[in-house]
Amino acid sequence: MAIMEVIMPKMGESIMEATVLNWLKKPGDYVEADEFILEVATDKIDTEVPSPVSGYLQKIIIPVGEIATIGKAICVIDSTENSAEPSPSTSTVTMFPQHEELALLTDVSLGILGQNEEKSNPWISPLIKQICLQENVTQRELSTIKGSGLDQRVTKKDVLNYIAVRNSKRMIASGTLSQGPGLRLPGDVVIEMDRMRKMISERMVDSKRIAPHVTSFLEADMTAMVTWRETEKANFLAKYKEPITYTPLLIMATAKALKDFPGMNISVEGNYLVQHEQINIGMAVALPNGNLIVPVIHEVDKLSLLELTKKVNDLSNRARLNKLTPFDLEGGTYSISNIGSFGNLMGTPIIVQPQVGILAFGVIEKKPAVISGPQGDQIAIRQKMFISHSYDHRVIDGSLGGGFLKRVSDYLEKFNISDHEL
């Protein structure tokens, strides 16, 4: 009988742990090799984890709502068919050969729950005990919480939701609900941030705390690019079966400028600067739930316009369907945000750490402009767009940040399809 511990695989660069969202199988179920057995959430992406072997799921080690550490066991599978009882000896199976041994949650004081109560409810995890201890949740309160996890176990989310509702009721009873910065009025609905919104919030605050942001602005004449796209977009779609948006054109201009200004294609590591050879550009994608994710297009400068268009369309579609992989989100060296798709004129984007800059492209609008020609200065209708460049003033000064922005604008204004390989 082959009893095997399934190890949490490496999920991507710098990811050390994941939260178990849902077990797709329950103990006793048969699973095929490579069949998905659970869903997890990392600090970058939600994804599914496959089984490395065929067999019966004997035991779930990490329940819903708890933390699975990369390199640690998450469940036990009996790979011998028709087996009913587990063997006392187990072997370990890793889903990928590379992983780091990392410490899981340490034991915490049982505190309010007490030693006897742990015996009466063996499914209360150390993490939940710690939360209860910090928030003064008694055993009696805990017993009233309806669990949403496997076999109706109480999860971290269940406890946090209970605490939020309990605290609101206490504020109402004390008459403090409408006082101070946390203003609430009759009829208000309190909505807890979802996991991704909390993560985005933390990262934005961290970025502003870490890097002193400076933002430069420039208005680019997009007439040549707009004229080409409006003329060719139908032919492009018919010929290549891909819609051509402005995003790949903006990314291509950014990549060219990064080659000209390699000092912008760096990361900060403490007192060191890391100069990147690869040009990997992240593009902000708005999700249907209002959250934001930044998938990465790797080695943009090596892609043709058609290849880049396919990459942009594929990543955008999979992002909105929650089908991105960990690889799709790692390795970014610079980022852009096409806020013009929301009709915004300009913005002051926040840097994706540890990168040192980010561009925001505004909406393209027709405007009267003065142009110089053989007959002298003339007023003409031009397609104009504001570009915003936020950069880390610890390591990027105005000459570099402003020069890079101007070079991006130059490439956009001088757009000629003959300069691009399709």
Task: Describe the fold and architecture.
This protein is an alpha+beta fold. It has three domains: 92 residues, RNA polymerase II/Efflux pump adaptor protein, barrel-sandwich hybrid domain (OB fold (Dihydrolipoamide Acetyltransferase, E2P), Beta Barrel); 82 residues; 221 residues, 2-Layer Sandwich (Chloramphenicol Acetyltransferase). It is built from nine helices and 20 strands. Strands 10, 13, 16, 17, 18, 19 and 20 form a seven-stranded mixed sheet that branches. A five-stranded mixed sheet has the order 3-6-8-1-9, with no helix packed on it. The longest helix has 19 residues. It is globular and about 85 Å long. The N and C termini lie far apart (57 Å). Its EC number is 2.3.1.-. Its cofactor is (R)-lipoate. InterPro entries: 2-oxoA_DH_lipoyl-BS, 2-oxoacid_DH_actylTfrase, 2-oxoacid_DH_E2_comp, Biotin_lipoyl, CAT-like_dom_sf, E3-bd_dom_sf, PSBD, Single_hybrid_motif. This is Dihydrolipoamide acetyltransferase component of pyruvate dehydrogenase complex. Belongs to the 2-oxoacid dehydrogenase family.
Fold blueprint:
Blueprint: E1 3-7, E2 17-23, E3 30-31, E4 36-41, E5 46-50, E6 55-60, E7 67-69, E8 73-78, E9 91-94, H1 115-120, H2 126-135, H3 139-144, H4 156-174, H5 195-210, E10 213-221, H6 223-240, H7 246-260, E11 266-269, E12 272-275, E13 281-283, E14 285-286, E15 292-293, E16 296-297, H8 305-320, E17 334-337, E18 357-361, E19 365-373, E20 376-392, H9 398-413
Parallel strand pairs: 1-9, 13-17, 17-18
Antiparallel strand pairs: 1-8, 2-4, 2-7, 3-6, 4-5, 6-8, 10-20, 11-12, 13-16, 14-15, 18-20, 19-20
Helix pairs in contact: 2-4, 7-8, 7-9
